[in-house]
Amino acid sequence: MNYPDILERFLTYVKIDTQSSDQSDSFPSTAKQLDLARVLVRELQDLGLKEVELNRWGYVFATLETNQKHKVPTVALLAHMDTSPDVSGAGVNPQIHRNYQGTDLVLSPDLVIKTGENPDLKEKTGKTIITSDGTTLLGADDKAGIAAIMDALTFLVKNPDRPRARVRVIFTPDEEVGKGVDHLSLEDIRADLGYTLDGGKLGEIEDETFCADTMEIKIVGVNTHPGTAKNKLVNAVKVAAALLAKLPLDSLSPETTEKREGYIHPISFNGTAGDTTLKFYLRDFSEQGLREKQNLLKKLLEETLAQYPQARAELKASESYRNMKTILDNHPLVLQKVEQAIAKAGLTPNRTFIRGGTDGARLCFMGLPTPNLFMGGGAFHSKAEWVALEDMQKASEVVVHLLQLWAEEQAG
After folding, report:
1. Class of domain 214-320
2. Could you confirm whether 120 is annotated as catalytic?
3. Catalytically annotated residue among 17, 43, 141, 175
4. What's the pTM?
5. 65 assigned to active site
6. How far apart are the first and last CA of the chain?
7. Catalytic: which of 17, 43, 82, 359?
């Protein structure tokens, strides 16, 4: 069989619209994610993997058995199928920029990917860069990760003597809306450890994430006909706006923070004069810092309600994920093996943090140590998104080396 190469796979995947929705109560949040899931099921079956399944929640599973006679660990390889709700993923028209020369990339008269704003892109001189045509996102997050995993599996199938651990493949929906593992259990995964391929820069291993909570605040005012509203109406929209106005302008927001600085991020504002709901993302690298941000938001709400004593508020806080470093520090071999694999691929391994989360963050706390690996690319969640073909190829190579290193490990 003539298997497609990594570029062909990637171009196929990004043309399938899999945008998830944070306004949906279904799971997956959009049915179109299953369009890619079905394609992946066929490809995994064509490769001859076992236990290939698309379950009722939209997860894709498959198993590649080890070729070793001794008992080896089972390694889960994960990537997510959905793309960000922030930018359209419909009608993606990928553009291939061969032998890139380190200059700005003009996608359209209205969109130029500037190297000054994308310093990682300037480092890709001589490589093949893939972008959209500037009207949609590209979808490299995380279809580059899927393509790298599928390419590594293809290599191992075509080279059956190459030592490998037992592999469980899991492609998840709804990662971009924070629900990627909502219906995933360790019984489904059946692995000893895992790796997500959902990072960015070449050689990076993300072993630290934000601690993340979501806080929803419903403001209930006093509604009445505006024609007879004097001294009666308490407009919930105005109360909510007053709360937002109390947030710091020069700190504690995504646009004013970097590195290990956390933030309070209002992400939606919906309602009427009668009641209005605000949703906030709270992020910090420590749980103490997260609690401080929760307390600050509550304090600002109390101050706002003091200005509008007839209004009231309902708060609902929910945990999204926690910093996976607290778990991964107890599993040093999981990180050491991938550092060795990256070095074998001729790269310099770099442990770092991500100002966000991955499916792996929640999996760590479910009992599956799962750091996040690079797949190349940058400017995710935007029309300026890009990925380097050679970086995807390196991610695939790292996976092959990684599975060989785990094949040398005796399972407990």
Report:
1. alpha beta
2. no
3. 175
4. 0.91
5. no
6. 37
7. 82
